[in-house]
């Protein structure tokens, strides 16, 4: 029988510790102020979709895994920000906080209650679907994975590099790294190697101030 080793994982996890809500001003002033904030301190090319954008619906639906939360009456986001790099996540956090907006983070969209894409107050989604890079170092037995990747993509990338390493996480390959690791993550290797979260050896987090923290900076 093949012996499976656990691969320690370095995770690039965009953890936006933010749950602010407020009543929006008029849509126009909201859009103007928020968009102005996003474009000033950072890259002006942050991809942002409003309900007027032709891709808005397809991007919103892309990661909706519970169709109970995909009806005509389901509350929809004011904007969807599909971050292309860390600085876009930082900008989303900083500007949401500045304007008192409710910001939801979505990785794989498998939340049972749709918490990454539905809210009963007006909200904005920062969607990590573009952040899917995975870099496996089989010699060190570690990998960096971005939060928008799926656990299936992680398993695939590991097996391409090594026939003996694996990673102890869930069964469903389309589950997102961000929500899965943040909640623990259990699967077939649980009894021997514990949860996915037990095997994370470093992480890059965006805190509520928009700063990036990692293992070293967090002591
Ligand atoms: C079909 C199915 C199979 C599953 N199988 C398993 C299994 O085998 N083992 C197991 O342990 N679990 C399993 N789960 C549960 C799954 O791990 C959780 O629902 C997990 O939170 C989904 O993560 P996600 O990124 O896909 O979801 P999302 O809906 O994107 O996120 C879930 C929650 O995490 C937050 N979040 C997402 N990304 C980030 C981020 N980068 N930083 C901070 N917060 C973030 C969201 O805001 C939301 O509150 C399964 C779920 C489904 C629907």
UniProtKB/TrEMBL annotation:
Coiled-coil residues: none
Domain FAD-binding PCMH-type: from-to ranges: 73-219
Molecular-function GO terms, alphabetical: FAD binding
Listed cofactors: FAD
Signal as UniProt keyword: yes
Keyword match Disulfide bond: yes
Organism: Thalictrum thalictroides (Rue-anemone)
Annotated Pfam families: FAD_binding_4 (PF01565)
Record key words, sorted: Disulfide bond, FAD, Flavoprotein, Glycoprotein, Signal
Signal peptide (UniProt feature, chain positions): 1-21
Name the UniProt record assigns to this protein: Fad-binding berberine family protein
């Amino acid at each position: 029988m093949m012996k499976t080793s656990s691969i320690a994982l370095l995770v690039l996890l965009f953890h936006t510790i933010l749950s602010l809500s407020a009543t929006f001003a008029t849509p126009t002033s909201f859009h103007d102020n928020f968009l102005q904030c996003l474009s000033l301190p950072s890259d002006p090319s942050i991809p942002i979709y409003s309900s007027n954008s032709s891709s808005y619906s397809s991007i919103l639906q892309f990661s909706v895994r519970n169709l109970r939360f995909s009806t005509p009456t389901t509350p929809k986001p004011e904007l969807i920000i599909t971050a292309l790099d860390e600085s876009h996540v930082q900008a989303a956090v900083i500007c949401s906080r500045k304007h008192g907006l409710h910001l939801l983070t979505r990785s794989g969209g498998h939340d049972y209650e749709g918490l990454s894409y539905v809210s009963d107050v007006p909200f904005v989604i920062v969607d990590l679907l573009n952040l899917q890079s995975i870099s496996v170092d089989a010699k060190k037995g570690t990998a960096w994975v971005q939060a928008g990747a799926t656990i299936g993509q992680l398993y695939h990338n590991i097996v391409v590099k090594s026939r003996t390493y694996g990673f102890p996480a869930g069964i469903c390959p389309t589950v997102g790294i961000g929500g899965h690791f943040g909640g623990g993550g259990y699967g077939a290797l649980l009894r021997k190697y514990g949860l996915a979260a037990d095997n994370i050896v470093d992480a890059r987090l965006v805190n509520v101030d928009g700063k990036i923290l990692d293992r070293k900076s967090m002591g």
